[in-house]
Amino acid sequence: MKFLEGSLKREMFKFFVFAAAVFTAPVFFRGGYIVNVLVFVGVYTILSVALNLLLGLAGQISLGQAAFFGLGAYISGVLTAAYGVNPWLAMAIAVIVVGMISFVLGFPILRLRGHYLAMATLGMGIIVYIVFNETIDITGGPSGLSGIPNLSIFGIIFNSDIKNYYLVWFFTSVTILLSVNLSASRVGRALRAIHDSEVAARILGVNVRLLKVQIFTISGIFSALAGSLYAHTVQFISPTSFGFNVSIELLTMVIIGGLGSIYGSFLGAAILTLLPELFRTFQDYDIIVYGIVLIVMTMFMPGGLVRGIPFLARALFSKVKHGLSSERRV
Amino acid sequence: MDLFEQLFQYTLSGLSTGAIYSLIGLGFAIIYNSTSIINFAQGEFVMLGGMLTLFFHVSLGLALPFSIVLAIVAATAVGALFEHLAINPLKDAEPIILVIITIGGSILIRGVAMLLWGKDTHALPMFSGNEPIIFMGAAMMPQNLWIFGITLIIITANRVFFHHSISGKAMRACSFNRIASRLVGINVNRMVLFSFGISSAIGAAAGIIIAPLTMTSYDIGIMLGLKGFCAAIIGGMSVGMGTVAGGLIVGILESLGAGLISSGYKDAIAFIILLVILFIRPQGLFGRGEAERV
Amino acid sequence: MLKTIIKSICIFCFILIFAGNSWSQEPIKIGALFAVTGPPSFLGEPERNTANMVVDQINKAGGIKGRKLKLVCYDTQGDATKAVQAANRLIKEDGVTAIIGPSTTGETMAVIPVVENAGIPLISCAAGIKITEPVKKWVFKTAQNDSLAVGRIYDHLKRRNINNVAILTVSDGFGASGREQLKLHAKDYGITIVSDEIYGPNDTDMTAQLVKIRGSKAQAIICWGTNPGPAKVARNARQLGLKLPLYMSHGVSSKKFIELAGDAAEGIILPSGRVIVANSLPKSDQQKKSLLAYVNDYRNHFKADGGHFGGHAWDAVMLLKGAIERGNGLPASIRNELENTRNFKGIGGIFNFSPQDHAGLTEDAFVLVTIKNKEWVLIK
Q1: Beta carbons within 8 Å of A187's beta carbon, 6+ residues apart
Q2: What is the ipTM, given to two decimal places?
């Protein structure tokens, strides 16, 4: 599997193009309802990138990312709605607390590998979800928590779709920037080595255990950030937004975009968030689509759309050109 | 009603659900033993058992015993199809890929069930009567007896198959060493197919015998599957008594926890047990350690 | 000559276009949030069906002041977050002037801040008393308050000389609200709650709670929730051999409950709107005629029973119709006219709104029914 390669300069150029597109997009949409949807795309992009760092880069399966998303959202939400804490402070607390939790949990969890790791993270996710549902006095339980205030800075209150768009995408862009840098750095290479073979990496001097926990923590921190942003933009949260199904959606987003491709994660998040809005009548079928997508893409397009489409195009083109079976990619 | 009676009641219902978890856990263990894959879709076969029986019995009007048999056959077919189309082509891929494929499979099966039969909850008729049996102050339904009985039969059949029949031993051989098995003439692909088929059948049977008690709907597979996995983990992925014991332990602890501590956290109990076992003793209470080639 | 002919043709076309426009004027857009699928589908499906049916009937009769009524309905699947997102979409993208629904208390509470902010009137079909108490400017409801249901049940228990009850409530908005009301009014009827158990909306087994209740001094059990939980409670109680009288809330006033609970439904008592026993009402009942009309209408359209919950949607749409007719059709005017609605004979009861009362019903909006041979029977 190939990951982001190329010089840092090229990555920065790619990033600036992306950031420019993000910054100017609302002008094209003239502030319609779609801006509201794009806010969600921003939040899910952060989550999907966070999962990709863990899954695509370091090769560690996590089916419980929604737990960190939810913890970030509830800590922010409860602190601001019930205790009147300043939203920025609450966000900082949420991010730090979740960071600590994921650091501590990381050590025992990441000793596991493959299926066992998947199950453990799944179990962790479900336990957190149950806690959200049962601690009714704190979280409001299944009926959710409302009255979460908007964020505000220098007197500007982020209470409209457009303002939330820029707020969220600022953080999304920062997340992407950091992730791209991480991926292209020494740490990124070490993580890729771990993905290929933990033993080999250890022999080469990589502190495998610590590094795995660190990337798990970073992933958790980004997810908590997304949770906090979500809470303050929607102003209402309930446990269903942080359940097992969401973890699966995130997994699908990463697979669609391509394991290891940061911009692919954005693509995956965008597709899976926009499509249900466009095809409202088919809302119920999304679960089938996810299943099919997961199976088909994993079997035939392991590089995701970002790699898969050019590859597919090339394959078709060469088939047409030579009329013989094309080279099989491993 | 004193504490002893309450405890007895909890234990009894715990044994009942525990038996179901054991069966589901067996399903996991069988597939794992022949392929080293964890089939995330195992829970969905449990769901299919109940839903298919409902379909055959209520929508098509067939007699209950016939519906049950048909449902098990249909679920087995689905399992075999899944293995053939999605698992077999990727048998040498890394674990992540297989995990994702089986997750995708579970979602797909669930989604199709939802499309075909809707999201409603449905009740399956009891096998034999609706009146509870009072036994030492605790109440039990005849259905519970069915559950114990059928579980016992399946477990025994399993043991006989895997330890005393050629096919069973061949399947176990595949789990020890694929290439060596092939060298001695075992058709590994067919063994894998069989193991998926048997797992699906057992899972479906489990789903059918519990459905009259707990009602069934398109999404019961997730939780049941996970708890069955707990059972298998505790049992060290054994196809025998280890997993059975694991299932009973999970069932009883869950029931006692719900009754004595808090019923809201009932589901969490099974997963806490899972995490504890995975952290402290991943080979389960009854398994031996695993060595891995690097 | 030619010039005149062309001019007249132009004027003629002009007139035609305007005349056509007076009918093809902008339709009045109403939003609907119903849980058509998901666990509360037994609420949302009849509600959505009824709403569509009534809107069709209104349009066939010429619309409201010559304008057609358009219903934009989104399925929330009973999920509060989806309800909030759908509400946003209705207001920002579809530009509706009023919203009916949601089907459940939890969803309604989540949507209230959205409509209050946007200044769009909401007529909820959910029962929680919190929805309209304290009164919110833009929020109304057509389902009877759960406090009224509690009163009915307690009254019946008092008449049977039962003082010790166990309550088993679901942990969602509806159940939590019911639990509050049950605890609040117990003393007024001389009732002591000796056991207070809770179950979750997705729980599959309530045996543990029932075992605890069995061990307490309770002489009757009141279960407060919406399908499928209470059906499981009924079955579990039977399986445990519990012989205590079992009362349910109006949340299960639907044939689906009887279907799910099977034999365990026999003898269960619950409060409900009159519509499910429309046939057995005395001739003197003011609502009997319109109730029977609705029952037959719904059966003709959908070959099933609209029932208690479909009635909430009927009331909501008709209340809106009245408000739009009396005002200018804009959100603020609709809100004002709703508040001024008096003596509206709906399916759920006879509504009297006021600035202090956005729920509009009294205790006799409920009757008590019991289940015999899988049918509803009125308790007199």
Answers
A1: A211
A2: 0.85
